[in-house]
Design brief:
heterodimer, A: 292 residues, Rossmann fold, 6-stranded mixed beta sheet, 4-stranded antiparallel beta sheet, B: 256 residues, mainly alpha, 9 helices, 0% strand
C-alpha cells in the first residue's frame, strides 16, 4: 500500500478522545504515519492585471487542521489550488515534504497528488458517472484494487457521509448539499494524508454542516490527517481549526489558534468576526420576533 | 495602421501558441496510448458514438455528394460522348478526396464540437481539476480515448461514405445518362486500385487525429463560464476546418 498501512477501524472501537459521527461511521482506512508539512514561500499569482496572491508566506503543520479565512476574492481558493498543484504560481515556492512542487511536471504531480485529496466548493462531480462511480473513480484509475474491493470502499464512504444507497444515482438528481457530501466521500476514498476542503459547509443545512464539521474533526483525531479548510463559516472555523489564518488582499495578515484569533486586535480580523456574529445575532432575533 | 499591426501580431502569436500547445497535447496523447488496453471501457463507447451514431448523417451526405458529382460531370462528359467514364470519375473523386475530406469536415462539426463542449463544460465546472486532484491525468482520461476512437473510426466511416457515394453516383448514371450499373462498376474497377483507397484512409485517419486533438485542446483550455464553452466550441470547429484544408493540400501534394 505504498508505505501506508490500512487497517479497519470499527465504529464501536473509538474511545472518548476520538469523536465520531454517531450511527453513520462504518470503518475507515487508517494512515499509519502522517508527516506532511506544507510550507509556502513568497507565493505570487496574477490573472492578467489582477494580482491575487502577493508574496504569501504560510506554514501548514502536519496532523493539524488549518483554517484559511478571508473575504471573497482574498485568494483562498487560488491558494488551495496552488497547494494541490492545479495552478502554477508566477513566483515563489510550495514545499511539500521539503520538495518544491512548483518545479514538478504534471506527471510528477500526479504521483504526489495520490497522497492528497480535495473537496471542491461545488463538489465537481463528473456528471456522466453515477455517485458510486464518482466515489470509486480515483481507486479504479489507480488500478490497484478489484472492482469488488472498490465497491466495498465506496459503500463505506457513502455511509460515512450519510448517503448510503445512493450509489446508482446520477449527480444531477442530487441536491447541492448531497453533491458536496459525495465530494467528501470521493476525497476520503483515496485515503489521503492531506485533505483540502474548499468551503465544505457552504450550502449545507445546519445539521449537515455540523456533521461535516464533526467529520473533519474526526478524521484529524483518528487519522492524524493534515487538513486545510477554506471557509467563510466562522462557527465552523473556530470549531474545526487548530490554527486559523486570516487572508486579506492576497496576504496572510494574521495567524494563530482559534482563541488568539477570537481575541485579535487586528481591525480587519475583528471586522470579519464581528460582522459574522452581528449577522448571526440579527438572524436569531429576526426569527425570534417572527415566531412571536 | 499601428493598431492593425498590433492586432495581426497578437492573432499570429495566439495562433502559434495554439499550434505549439496542440502539438504538445498530441505528443502527450500518443505517450498515453501505451495504456490503451486498460482504457478499452472508455474507448469502445466513444467509437460507437463517433462511428455508428454518425452513420445516418454520413450516408445522407455521401449519397447526395455522389449523385451531384455524377450529375455535374455527367452533363459535361455527355457533350463529348464520354459518359461511360462516370464510374471512374465518381469513384476516384470519392475515394481520393471527397470521401475523406467531407467526412472529416462533417465529423469536425459533429464530433469535434461535441468533444470541445463536453470537455469545456468539465473544465469550467472544475471536473478536470477534480480528475487531477484524484491523481488522474486528464490527457490519459479524456484525450487519449477520444484520439484513438477518432483515428480508428474515421477511416471506417470513410470506407462506408465511399461505398454509399459511389452507389449514389451509379444511380444517377443509370437514371439520367443511360450508363448501366455493370459499365459503371467495370469502369470503377479499372480506375480504382488499392493505393487510391489506402491514401484516402491514411488521410482520414490523420483528419481524425486533427479533430480529436483540436477538440480536446480547446475544451481543456476553456475557462470562465457557459459563454466561453460556446466560444471554444465555435473556435474548435473553425480551427479543425482550417487545419483539415491545409493538411489535405500538403498531404495530396506530397503523396499524389
Amino acid at each position: 500500500m505504498n508505505g501506508r498501512q490500512r487497517t479497519l477501524c470499527l465504529s464501536g472501537s473509538n474511545d472518548n478522545k476520538h469523536r465520531c459521527l454517531p450511527g453513520i461511521f462504518g470503518f475507515v482506512y487508517m494512515n499509519k504515519s502522517n508527516n506532511v508539512e506544507i510550507e509556502i514561500l513568497n507565493l505570487n499569482k496574477s490573472f492578467r492585471d489582477n494580482h491575487i496572491l502577493k508574496n504569501l508566506n504560510l506554514k501548514i503543520p502536519s496532523g493539524k487542521t488549518t483554517v484559511i479565512m478571508g473575504g471573497s476574492g482574498a485568494g483562498k481558493t487560488v491558494l488551495l489550488k496552488h497547494i494541490m498543484g492545479l495552478l502554477k504560481p508566477d513566483s515563489g515556492k510550495i514545499l511539500i515534504k521539503g520538495e518544491d512542487i512548483t518545479a514538478k511536471t504534471e506527471r510528477e504531480l500526479d504521483k504526489l497528488r495520490s497522497s492528497f485529496a480535495m473537496v471542491f466548493q461545488f463538489a465537481a462531480l463528473l456528471n456522466s458517472l453515477t455517485v458510486g462511480q464518482n466515489v470509486g473513480l480515483g481507486l479504479k484509475e489507480r488500478g490497484e484494487l478489484t472492482q469488488k474491493e472498490i465497491n466495498k470502499i465506496v459503500d463505506e464512504k457513502l455511509r460515512l457521509v450519510g448517503l448510503d444507497g445512493k450509489q446508482h444515482v446520477m449527480p444531477g438528481e442530487l441536491s447541492g448539499g448531497m453533491k458536496k457530501r459525495v465530494g467528501v466521500a470521493r476525497a476520503l476514498a483515496m485515503n489521503p494524508e492531506v485533505i483540502l476542503y474548499d468551503e465544505p459547509t457552504a450550502g449545507l443545512d445546519p445539521f449537515m454542516a455540523g456533521n461535516v464539521d464533526e467529520l473533519i474533526l474526526d478524521l484529524k483525531n483518528r487519522l492524524k490527517m493534515t487538513s486545510i479548510v477554506v471557509t467563510h463559516d466562522m462557527n465552523s472555523a473556530f470549531y474545526v481549526g487548530d490554527r486559523i489564518c486570516m487572508l486579506h488582499e492576497g496576504r496572510v495578515i494574521e495567524e494563530g489558534t482559534p482563541e488568539e484569533i477570537q481575541n485579535s486586535t487586528n481591525h480587519i480580523t475583528r471586522q470579519f468576526i464581528t460582522r459574522h456574529s452581528v449577522q448571526n445575532t440579527a438572524r436569531v432575533s429576526d426569527s425570534g420576533s417572527g415566531g412571536k | 495602421m499601428r493598431t492593425i499591426l498590433i492586432y495581426l501580431g497578437h492573432r499570429l502569436l495566439t495562433f502559434s501558441e495554439n499550434i505549439g500547445q496542440m502539438l504538445r497535447l498530441l505528443v502527450e496523447t500518443i505517450y498515453w496510448c501505451k495504456q490503451t488496453f486498460r482504457n478499452l471501457d472508455k474507448i469502445f463507447p466513444l467509437m460507437r458514438r463517433i462511428g455508428a451514431d454518425s452513420l445516418p448523417i454520413a450516408s445522407f451526405t455521401a449519397i447526395f455528394i455522389g449523385m451531384v458529382l455524377a450529375l455535374q460531370t455527367g452533363y459535361t462528359l455527355e457533350k463529348f460522348g464520354m459518359e461511360a467514364s462516370l464510374g471512374s470519375i465518381v469513384s476516384v473523386a470519392m475515394c481520393r478526396e471527397l470521401g475523406p475530406v467531407l467526412t472529416g469536415l462533417l465529423l469536425a462539426g459533429r464530433i469535434g464540437a461535441g468533444i470541445t463542449a463536453e470537455i469545456g463544460t468539465m473544465s469550467v465546472s472544475e471536473e478536470v481539476d477534480a480528475l487531477k486532484s484524484l491523481g488522474i491525468n486528464p490527457v490519459r482520461y479524456l484525450s487519449m480515448p477520444r484520439f484513438l476512437a477518432c483515428v480508428f473510426m474515421l477511416p471506417v466511416l470513410v470506407i462506408y461514405a465511399d461505398v454509399v457515394g459511389i452507389f449514389g453516383g451509379g444511380v444517377v448514371s443509370s437514371t439520367y445518362f443511360d450508363v448501366s450499373f455493370s459499365i459503371y462498376f467495370d469502369k470503377m474497377a479499372e480506375s480504382l486500385d488499392f493505393m487510391e483507397i489506402f491514401k484516402g484512409l491514411v488521410k482520414s485517419s490523420m483528419f481524425g487525429a486533427i479533430i480529436s486533438i483540436v477538440g480536446c485542446h480547446h475544451g481543456l483550455k476553456t475557462t470562465g463560464g457557459p459563454g466561453e464553452v460556446g466560444t471554444a466550441t465555435t473556435n474548435s470547429v473553425v480551427f479543425s476546418f482550417v487545419t483539415i484544408y491545409i493538411f489535405d493540400y500538403f498531404f495530396t501534394r506530397l503523396w499524389l
